Amino acid sequence: MSFANIPLEEKQHALQELRIIKEQFAARGWFPGTSGNLSVRVGAYQPEQFHFAVTASGKDKSIHTPEDFLFVDQAGQPAEATKLKPSAETLIHAEIYRLTGCGAIFHVHTIYNNIISEGYGDTGYIPAQGIELIKGLGIWEENAKIQIPILPNFAAIPRIAELIPAALQQDIPGIVLRNHGIYAWGANAFEAKRHLESFEFIFEHIYRSLTLRG
């Protein structure tokens, strides 16, 4: 489906979802210094052709403006005439959409995901076991054990995107950039938000547990 054929109501709904999520995450301090980015897919999905709304580059996400978001195609390029620039990490969103067919992707920088990803960076994944909010990722087995992938935080975004196919795990709806932040996704905005909140709980749980153990 071409971008022009996507119903206006669907585009407006995607933008409204992003505004609500942006406001909620900003209230938690998850967008320090204009960091982070959010996106929601619109229209039909095909690996070789899809579109999504994404946060514009360099915006203060603690306030709302008419220029907070724009629509881009599967290559991360604007889908309509605009003076806005997509977030620098839009290519990462595009690659995750291409590989998973998900409906929304949220990326935030927090103290906990930065510290934990740096601590486990050489391992290549963050291990977690027996933490209640693992269930928030849709994993319900007793005393579940998971490994959350960590990728290096290269300055060149295409280098990161190239590593995503090998890093993705079918049951883990997220990847972490080392000492940078997490990308969490889901079938829709509600699910992506739940996954992100679950990951952040897991990171804080790990950090505080390690602190208590000295």
Automatic annotation (TrEMBL):
Record-annotated membrane-spanning stretches: none
Sequence similarity: Belongs to the aldolase class II family. MtnB subfamily.
GO molecular function: methylthioribulose 1-phosphate dehydratase activity
Stored InterPro entries: Aldolase_II/adducin_N, Aldolase_II/adducin_N_sf, MethylthioRu-1-P_deHdtase_MtnB
Binding, Zn(2+): 107, 109
Tagged with keyword Lyase: yes
UniProt xrefs under SUPFAM superfamilies: AraD/HMP-PK domain-like
Annotated source species: Paenibacillus shirakamiensis
Cofactor binding, note field: Binds 1 zinc ion per subunit.
Gene3D superfamilies, per database record: Class II aldolase/adducin N-terminal domain (3.40.225.10)
Domain Class II aldolase/adducin N-terminal, first and last residues per copy: 16-207
EC code: 4.2.1.109
Alphabetical keyword list: Amino-acid biosynthesis, Lyase, Metal-binding, Methionine biosynthesis, Zinc
Top-tier EC class: lyase
Designated name of the protein: Methylthioribulose-1-phosphate dehydratase
Superkingdom of source: Bacteria
UniProt-listed NCBIfam families: salvage_mtnB (TIGR03328)
